[in-house]
Amino acid sequence: MKLGINFTLPNGQLLKSKHYIKDSGMEINFAALVRAKLMFSLKTINFRAAGPITPPECVRFDVEIIFDNEDHDGQMSLVLEAEPYKLVCNGDKNYITDNKIDQILRSILNILVILICSASLMLCSRAIYRAQLLKELTVQFFRRAYNKELSWDGRLEFLNIWYIMIIVNDLLIIMGSAIKEQIERNQFTNDQWNVCSLFLGLGNLLVWFGVLRYLGFFKTYNVVILTLKKAAPKIFRFSFCALLLYAGFMFCGWLILGPYHMKFRSLATTSECLFSLINGDDMFATFSIMSKKSPMLWWFSRVYLYSFISLYIYVVLSLFISVIMDAYDTIKQYYSEGFPKSDLQTFIGEPCIEEVSSGLYRTQSSSSLNAMMNSLFCCNFYRSAYSKIGGGGSNLNIL
């Protein structure tokens, strides 16, 4: 078998890698080769003629080719990895910039997104902070007035999960927009689009989840949201039990069927195969790929696959759906008979819209700009307002 890599040098001389290695004093037994790694760098210029940015980009690719012959089965696996790095272009870099307006508009958009998300982040953080102050005052009021602790459900009334999700998506979008702006200004030495897309993608996902909050104002959509909220604790407990069974099947299949089935060669591929079987995907191929070299393991694979598919499709998934349907029936019953109240809701009662807007809960305020700024950024205003709830003679030191 002839081994070697041949290429021509700029002067026309033919370079043979096998002779080069031999002349360099390196003795390599290719028949006993286990693993080899070839590393080199390539430089190129990207003119980006069809892109939104006309300046050329100088890029260096650090290429790594891995030859893996650990199995010694006559087949050598190849892995090629190329990592790009941006360089500073030297030489004649004169170019025509006909899209200055587009660049300015993109920068304005990025800055505007960052400012809006920053304002949303501060307002939601302020709302959560004020709610926790009010919770501490309420806990102390229940201790002093009723000589009991506020229940866990009552404490959760002061924690708005929607605000926490908004804070997280604001942080993600701010970081993604900042990275995007720096990339467009060529302030990064290597490509950070993967990190940028990760932040922006997750932030966008949470933004669309937040739209569900506004659908909750409609009764029809609110039933779905309340059903998911009601079923969430049971779903988590049920999923934990199902995950233990799943882990047992996964390790069993990997240990026993790994040498004979390509879909069970590793834990990752085993988990992917079992998850696809739960959804009824590629069942026949999973059965037929199994090697018949060992009749005992061939029959075991049949029993193993039939047991897993039957258990998860006919039992686990059915119970999972029944848990959600039970929560849905409970929410429907609450709509007809009334929702259960926590001790905090019982204390507040059910004021109608007219009672809330009648001025009973209205505090003194000022229309001046100074008062508005104090209400937004100063905590002294909240201390004076909340002290009315806690009582003037109490020794509450919340702030």
From TrEMBL:
Compartment annotation:
Cell membrane; Endosome membrane
The Polycystin cation channel PKD1/PKD2 domain extends over 204-331
Gene3D superfamilies named in the record: 1.10.287.70
According to the entry, every stretch annotated as the Mucolipin extracytosolic domain falls at: 21-85
The alphabetical list of record keywords is: Cell membrane, Disulfide bond, Endosome, Ion channel, Ion transport, Membrane, Transmembrane, Transmembrane helix, Transport
TM ranges: 108-129, 161-180, 192-215, 235-257, 303-325
Question: Which is an annotated GO molecular function term of this record?
Answer: NAADP-sensitive calcium-release channel activity
Catalysed reaction per UniProt? Answer: Ca(2+)(in) = Ca(2+)(out)
Write down any Gene Ontology CC term.
lysosomal membrane
Q: Name the membrane topology term.
A: Multi-pass membrane protein
Q: Which PANTHER family match?
A: MUCOLIPIN, SD02261P
Q: What is this protein called?
A: Mucolipin
Q: Which organism is it from?
A: Papilio xuthus
